Amino acid sequence: MNSSFAHWRKEFPILERCTHLISHSLGAMPRSTFDRLHDYAELWNFRGIRAWSEGWWDKPLTTGDLLAPILGVAPGSVVMHQNVSVAIALIYSCFEFEAPRNKLVYTDMNFPSVMYVSEAHRRAGANVVMVPSHDGIGVDTEAILAAIDERTLLVPISHVLFRSAFIQDAQAITRRAHEVGAMVVLDCYQSAGTVPLHLEEWGVDFAVGGSVKWLIGGPGAGWLYVRKDHRTNLEPRITGWAAHEHPFEFEVGPIHYANDMRRFLHGSPGVPALYAAETGYKIVAEIGVDAIRANSVRQTERMIAKADDLGLVVKSPRDSTKRGGTIVLDVPFGKAVTQELNRREILCDFRPGAGVRMSAHFYNTDEELDRALDAIRSILDTKAYAAHMNAKTAY
Ligand SMILES: Cc1ncc(COP(=O)(O)O)c(C=O)c1O
Fold first, then answer.
1. Cβ of residue 187 lying under 6 Å from some atom of ligand 1
2. Residue 339 pLDDT greater than 80, yes or no
3. Domains and their CATH numbers in the chain
4. For residue 370, is pLDDT > 80?
5. Which residue, by CA, sits nearest to atom 8 of ligand 1?
6. CA distance 266 to 260
7. What percentage of residues in the chain have a pLDDT greater than 70?
8. Distance between CA atoms of residues 156 and 88, nearest Å
9. Separation of 157 CA from ligand 1 center, angstroms?
10. 255 C-alpha to center of ligand 1: Å?
11. Contact, 238 vs 79, CB < 8 A?
12. d(Cα 201, Cα 267) in Å, to the nearest integer?
């Protein structure tokens, strides 16, 4: 661990109890989240209905503003939703999938949320084109660029792939999409908080993500970014009174959309989740994603070197410029090995078709990473374990 981060460890109580290498799935809870959730309950309890005008109603925007610097966008560019599925469905609901421009280009390495919402739009007329990965690690950028043409409406791609931590070339894909009049929806769930983002500079049209992982903000705080020039002309069909220009006029009939990011809201916000998320954003912003990234690159390089020494097969890119904060290991009986690691209080996970996923966030020490990899080696070397597993079907 970079010693300048050492003092942060005490702010994450779970680190005292286990080896927490699972920030790609659920980041450790900041101690300050207890207080922030208490603030939420206090406001409700003491101010009652006035809580709405004293912060609750605006929470999807004010929380989005805390996230803005981490995403590399201006304040007023982000609204909060429950999760990526809802955010992406809301963006799709702005469009007609009518030929000739009805093509949706994505890859088989996208996260299922984006995949399932995209596939479901076949029923709405979308011509869904899936670009395959040939090695289960990355997707050839040239193949994605070649699939994007004048018939393409949207390109929903993952920035960092959840199965391998491969970083896709978001800028090249955005350039190509714009050349042919298509739009990019960038899923930044596996990059926000660990890989620096400059969404405005890159020109992506839309971006989505959540707070469960590297942003250490917990569940229920998905986010949506919309580029400025799309904020006044799109009309989402997934909508509600919070998207109205004057919600408290309770107008009868069709909606008059707000002319800013509120246009991309729907009904009442999930307030407690947003209180919880803020503590994570503040910590990530205070440390700075550039500093987090520098440490993450150093630690993931250390993990790869150690895995090589131990004879463990790495299924993440070796080039750190193409790799996010996770290392995936193709370990025999990976699911069972992961269960044993979890039993030993080493938190990591297993994904079929990928392997054992372990991540390094700013609060992890080098010793924790070494210990976890040594533990995998020792589990695999246990004779009884091997015999037991040989009697079973491989996972
Ligand atoms: C790249 C990526 N996108 C999206 C999600 C989650 O989607 P949702 O917010 O719909 O649960 C995950 C992980 O849970 C992910 O890794």
1. yes
2. yes
3. 3-24+288-390 (3.90.1150.10), 32-285 (3.40.640.10)
4. yes
5. 84
6. 13
7. 96
8. 9
9. 12
10. 30
11. no
12. 31
Strand partners, 358: 327
Distance CA 75, CA 286 (A): 17
> Angle at CA 106, nearest 5°, toward 100 and 112?
130
Q: Could you tell me the sign of the dihedral formed by the alpha carbons of 140, 185, 110, 323, in that order?
A: positive
Strands 78-81 and 222-226: antiparallel
The answer to whether the beta carbons of residues 107 and 144 sit under 8 Å apart is yes
Residues facing residue 349 across a β-bridge:
357
Instruction: Decide: 191 in ligand 1 pocket, CB within 6 A.
Output: no
pLDDT category of residue 394 using cuts at 50, 70 and 90: very low
Amino acid at 136: G
Q: How many degrees, rounded to 5, is the angle at CA 164 between CA 158 and CA 168?
A: 35
Q: CA-based Rg of the chain, rounded to a whole angstrom?
A: 22
Q: Ligand 1 pocket check: which of 22, 82, 106, 111 to mutate, most ligand atoms within 8 Å of Cβ?
A: 111
Tokens standing for residue 98:
């009518």
Determine the distance from the C-alpha atom of residue 351 to the mean position of all C-alpha atoms in its chain, rounded to a whole number: 16
